[in-house]
Amino acid sequence: MVIQTVGIIGAGTMGNGIAQTCAVAGFSVVMVDISDAAVQRGLATVASSLDRLIKKEKITEADKAAALARIHGSTAYEDLNKADFVIEAATENHALKLKILQQVDALLAPEVILASNTSSISITQLAAATSRADRFIGMHFFNPVPMMALVEIIRGLQTSDDTHAAVEALSKALGKSPITVKNAPGFVVNRILVPMINEAFFVLGEGLATPDDIDTGMRLGCNQPIGPLALADMIGLDTLLAVMEVYLKEFGDSKYRAAPLLKELVAAGRLGRKTGQGVYQY
Known about the structure:
Layout: E1 5-9, H1 13-24, E2 28-32, H2 36-55, H3 61-69, E3 71-74, E4 85-88, H4 94-105, E5 113-116, H5 123-128, E6 136-141, E7 150-155, H6 161-173, E8 177-182, H7 189-205, H8 211-222, H9 228-235, H10 237-251, H11 260-267
Parallel strand pairs: 1-2, 1-4, 2-3, 4-5, 5-6, 7-8
Antiparallel strand pairs: 6-7
């Protein structure tokens, strides 16, 4: 399968990061969101990210111009019919993803592979809602997408070997290092990571240590590049809470209950870096 144009649904943090990665790797990109304002924010974020790479002397001004020229922003799902491969990177909401995937599925040519960037929702279940279950797969990028090497490829029960091979090849063409996992709540990385972050909120809520001391302890004691609470602010506290709620529902195990402090911060609208305040002030 030859992939020349990648369609991306969503121009937010993950969508524009995937768009940038694809464009820098030489692919044409169609990035779709519900409003022109959202699309323009996504394109501006890509431009700013490329500027930072220029300052670090990792790319040139010409590289930036070429990458931006490869990204076409749109508010029309119909423009995705130009794509050979489509990645859904909408908000981590089951009902919303199903609605988008069913709408887009009807517009795409039968041979087009449809992937979801979900971090916790069942790939098997999402695939079953489309007409191309054998050509549906999970392609979980990590934030910030241009910097993080990992792509978690999740095979649903129906995913064909050819689909898996095509996605593995695409991941490598993007300069990523893919791992393949079976479909299960949270897959592998987040299944381990998110409960660890949630436990940090229990520790903070119990007053055992300050946020700085918790993060410093995990950085220096466990060799983590960033502490769990700072990472939570980067991911988004609402996203973490949503993932924990999926785990609790799917596994039915109380060890996946969300920390009360995490719930409180989300209820207060303190969602992390994107709102200017989470555990820390930005």
